[in-house]
């Protein structure tokens, strides 16, 4: 499996928000951090240095990750984790742990990818530079593809 991550620079239209990520199986193993919404990224992407904070996770798979500059690296796709974006509904989803560089201020910049946004039923409003709740699950397009 190859996953593609896009650049994380300070771009026009950048949206950041708070996320809470935690173990579904072990109480107290959760953390809150600020993350960059990246609709070109596959899923919630966290630094490998944080992996042990969530304890044992029943699913773990090593995957190849294609970075924005074309490099291919290894990542660990793990789950399920409890994920909550800002004040939106929490859900169970996966996270990709990669060796992530620190930004200019010495912090990691986690990414919220498109699968995580869909799981949370959240859409990006690029005009207002914010996230909005998706009022209903759209099954129409999926049904048309299956036909």
List the helices and strands and how they pair.
Layout lengths: L1 E3 L11 E8 L6 E8 L6 E4 L11 E8 L5 E14 L5 E8 L12 E2 L1 H6 L2 E4 L4 E4 L6 H7 L1
Parallel strand pairs: 1-5, 3-8, 4-7
Antiparallel strand pairs: 2-3, 2-6, 5-6, 6-7, 9-10
Count of DSSP strands: 10
What share of the residues lie within helices?
Answer: under 10%
Count structural domains.
1
The top level CATH class name: Mainly Beta
Strand content: 35-45%
Q: So how many helices?
A: 2
Helices and strands, in order, run as EEEEEEEEHEEH
CATH architecture: Beta Barrel
Mean pLDDT: 88
What Rg is obtained from the alpha carbons, in whole angstroms? Answer: 15 Å
Overall spatial form? globular
CATH topology assignment = Cathepsin D, subunit A, domain 1
Largest sheet: 8 strands, mixed
Low-confidence stretches: 1-10
Distance between the termini: 27 Å
Put the structure in a nutshell.
The protein is mainly beta and 147 residues long.
Describe the structure.
With 147 residues, the chain is mainly beta. It has a single domain, classed as Acid Proteases (Cathepsin D, subunit A, domain 1). 9% of the residues lie in helices and 43% in strands. The chain is built from two helices and ten strands; from the N terminus they run E-E-E-E-E-E-E-E-H-E-E-H. The strands form two sheets. Strands 1, 2, 3, 4, 5, 6, 7 and 8 form an eight-stranded mixed beta sheet that branches. A two-stranded antiparallel ribbon has the order 9-10. A hairpin with a 5-residue loop joins strand 5 and strand 6 (72-85). The chain is globular and about 35 Å long. The protein starts with a strand and ends with a helix. Mean pLDDT is 88; it is low at 1-10.
């Amino acid at each position: 499996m190859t996953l593609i991550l896009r650049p994380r620079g300070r771009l026009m239209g950048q949206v950041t928000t708070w996320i809470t990520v935690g173990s579904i199986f072990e109480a107290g193993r959760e953390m809150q951090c600020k993350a960059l919404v990246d609709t070109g990224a596959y899923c919630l992407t966290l630094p490998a240095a944080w992996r042990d904070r969530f304890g044992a996770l029943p699913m773990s798979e090593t995957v190849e990750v294609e970075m924005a500059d074309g490099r291919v690296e290894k990542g660990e796709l793990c789950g399920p984790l409890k994920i909550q974006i800002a004040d939106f509904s929490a859900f169970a989803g996966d996270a990709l742990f990669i060796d992530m560089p620190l930004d200019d201020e010495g912090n990691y910049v986690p990414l919220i990818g498109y699968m995580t946004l869909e799981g949370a039923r959240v859409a990006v409003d690029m005009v207002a530079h914010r996230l909005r709740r998706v009022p209903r699950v759209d099954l129409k397009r999926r049904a048309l593809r299956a036909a």
